[in-house]
TrEMBL record:
<keyword id="KW-0915">Sodium</keyword>
<dbReference type="GO" id="GO:0006814">
    <property type="term" value="P:sodium ion transport"/>
</dbReference>
<keyword id="KW-0456">Lyase</keyword>
<dbReference type="InterPro" id="IPR005661">
    <property type="entry name" value="OadB_MmdB"/>
</dbReference>
<keyword id="KW-0406">Ion transport</keyword>
<keyword id="KW-0472">Membrane</keyword>
<keyword id="KW-1278">Translocase</keyword>
<dbReference type="Pfam" id="PF03977">
    <property type="entry name" value="OAD_beta"/>
</dbReference>
<feature type="transmembrane region" description="Helical">
    <location>
        <begin position="353"/>
        <end position="372"/>
    </location>
</feature>
<keyword id="KW-0739">Sodium transport</keyword>
<feature type="transmembrane region" description="Helical">
    <location>
        <begin position="255"/>
        <end position="276"/>
    </location>
</feature>
<dbReference type="GO" id="GO:0005886">
    <property type="term" value="C:plasma membrane"/>
</dbReference>
<feature type="transmembrane region" description="Helical">
    <location>
        <begin position="20"/>
        <end position="39"/>
    </location>
</feature>
<dbReference type="GO" id="GO:0016829">
    <property type="term" value="F:lyase activity"/>
</dbReference>
<feature type="transmembrane region" description="Helical">
    <location>
        <begin position="46"/>
        <end position="63"/>
    </location>
</feature>
<protein>
    <submittedName>
        <fullName>Sodium ion-translocating decarboxylase, beta subunit</fullName>
        <ecNumber>4.1.1.70</ecNumber>
    </submittedName>
</protein>
<keyword id="KW-1003">Cell membrane</keyword>
Length: 373
């Protein structure tokens, strides 16, 4: 009996229960909330489920899963060396139809205007005591582009990766909740009901040339943009050239899905209690929200300017889609529009600034890398 009790005491003493801290418990609760939002509420489940489960794994004490030689440490290699974000950009390129942007190129300006929050958050973060590299990493959350946020943060400030990634993906998943009240605040009922003319057809030649021209132009102007924009456009060329259907399907499905799993798990693995439960994390979460809201405001206000300059032919709401949360932001514009005018279809018009936002955020990140590396 004594031997049995000693064995039981030893097992309990070396179990995770004995090493469990209040910080671990808090992070496990955070992970459970993420799982609830993803599985029950449908908020970006493809991203939040791997992130949340990675958070669960890394906050179970004594597993060693994120230590040197641990499983997640090996998986983290792809995030640490910016491999996963770039591969995901290839998948996004293979999934994206740039025809709405090519049909109405002026909407590219809306994608640029929707980067306003990036620069507001940059100065806000520096005022709160972050270094300029940390501030740049936090500010890019305003672009609502998770892979770009991770890519830039690993280059400039890897010590805050967990908080930046969680903020970026959280706000991407909350686009349907955050954007509608902001859009309504800066548009009138009459604005939201504006119908736009049908887009012109885009030829196959235009679609094939666009990724090639864009890669060369961006690469020569901003060499730091080549890993993101170059691979994004490579994925799009696979889609549009018509000669690589199998590769395009692989980039859109198997490769993208596998990489999303590895990226999500490794981002979640950065959310250990010791690293995540800090005052700086709260600041980053708040600054990320400020950046995202300000980007929506910037796009909408520029949409108002374009409405005036076009004689009322452009619905200013499509400017809000200039953040790069594709295609959620465009869908939000469509939904808000249809509530005002059920016969109005703005989805394809909003996709123009939406895909421009992907390029705009990558360009903003490249500018920061060029200036700060």
């Amino acid at each position: 009996m004594e031997l049995y009790l000693q064995s039981l005491a030893k097992v309990l003493g070396e179990s995770g229960f004995a090493a469990l801290t209040w910080g671990n418990i808090a992070m496990l609760l955070v992970a459970f909330v993420f799982l609830y939002l993803a599985i029950v509420k449908g908020f970006e489940p493809l991203l939040l489920v791997p992130i949340a489960f990675g958070c669960v794994l890394v906050n179970l004490p004594l597993s060693g899963i994120m230590d040197e030689g641990g499983f997640l440490r090996y998986i983290f290699f792809g995030t640490q060396h910016e491999i996963y974000p770039v591969i995901i950009f290839m998948g996004i390129g293979a999934l994206t139809d740039f025809a709405p942007l090519l049909a109405n190129p002026i909407t590219f300006l809306l994608g640029a205007a929707a980067q306003l929050g990036v620069f507001i958050a940059l100065f806000g973060a520096m005022m709160l005591g972050f270094s300029v590299k940390e501030a740049a990493s936090i500010a890019i959350i305003g672009g609502a582009d998770g892979p770009t946020s991770i890519y830039l943060t690993m280059k400039l400030a890897p010590q805050i990766l967990g908080a930046v990634a969680v903020a970026a993906y959280s706000y991407m998943s909350l686009v349907p909740l955050i954007q509608p009240p902001v859009i309504k605040m800066f548009t009138t009922k009459a604005d939201r009901a504006i119908r736009m003319d049908n887009l012109r057809p885009v030829s196959k030649l235009e679609k094939v040339l666009f990724p090639i021209v864009c890669t060369v132009a961006a690469g020569l102007l901003l060499p730091m943009s080549v890993p993101l924009i170059g691979i994004l456009m490579f994925g799009n060329l696979l889609r549009e050239c018509g000669a690589t259907e199998r590769l395009s399907q692989a980039a859109q499905n198997e490769i993208l899905n596998a990489t999303t799993i590895f990226l999500g798990l490794s981002v979640g693995a950065t959310m250990s209690a010791a690293d995540f439960l800090t005052i700086d994390t709260i600041k980053i979460i708040v600054l990320g929200l400020v950046a995202f809201v300000a980007s929506t405001v910037g796009g909408t206000l520029f949409g108002q300017l374009m409405k005036i300059m076009s004689g009322g032919k452009i619905n200013p709401m499509i400017g809000a889609a200039g953040v790069s949360a594709v295609p959620m932001a465009a869908r939000v514009v469509q939904n808000v529009s249809q509530k005002e005018n059920p016969g109005n279809f703005l989805l394809m018009h909003a996709m123009g600034p939406n895909v421009a936002g992907v390029i705009g955020t990558a360009v903003a990140a490249s500018v920061m890398l060029t200036l700060l590396s």
